[in-house]
Design goal:
By secondary structure, the protein is an alpha/beta fold. The protein has a single domain, classed as Spore Coat Polysaccharide Biosynthesis Protein SpsA, Chain A (Alpha-Beta Complex), CATH 3.90.550. It has a seven-stranded mixed beta sheet, with helices on both faces. It is globular and about 60 Å long.
Amino acid sequence: MVEPNQREPIAKSPVSVILFAHALSTETADALKDWQAYLGVLGRPNEIILIQETRPEVAASDTPQTCRTILYDRATGFRDALNEAIRSAQNPLIVFCSCDRQYRPADLEELFKSIDQVDLVVGYRTGGQAPPWRVVLDIITVLFGRVVLGIPVGPRVCWLGSDGWGRRWIARWIFGVRVHDPECPLRVARRTIFQNIPIQSRGSFMQVEMLAKANHLTCLLAEAPVKWTPPAAETADAIPFGEDAWTIFREPDFGDAAVPHLAPAESPPPAPSPSNS
């Protein structure tokens, strides 16, 4: 594994932004304008790749002329579209986010601050007041960790509510993803890590899969706080979270990393030539 101080500085490199748009979203066009404005101020080569959901019951919207669009059918999921977007990305930094106004493009600055030392930086949604029962449980956990186990437990940095607690539990204890907010879609990564991280998930488990595979391959991960505006209405997933999780748990695909390679110094010696005697 490459040590943090040996990683090539990349924070100021050109960036490819991959955005996910739901067919029913009314904010896609405005969110695209927000990203285009931010990238214009950022002042570096960039591109936007829009992964656009389609549904039979929804009329197709006009494809924006300012970005490249890859369509996918909601019923089959976005796996192929996402892998195509990653493979075709032209720049060394890849940003991922939903194409709505839940997240602010300017919060990428916080993620860029850490990317030189690591391989992938994921945001975590700040704010939210934990209910009294959770506050009491946190206090008990902190005291138990310090007094009984001798392990310092940091304060809670965000409260995402009870919704999704089961998914976050699976991410942490089944797949070893120990970040505050494994489902936050705002993240930035070095493009090179995806040589060994083909996406298998067709739905929302993709957020966890990406982190779990990067962690398994000893990539370094970091976190950064981001602002979050909850959507007016939640969008139901066509592909169940658990279905993809079970597939990745049973048969994870790491691309070329699954095939052993010998380093040049470890190459086997040439076979001896046959004797003429």
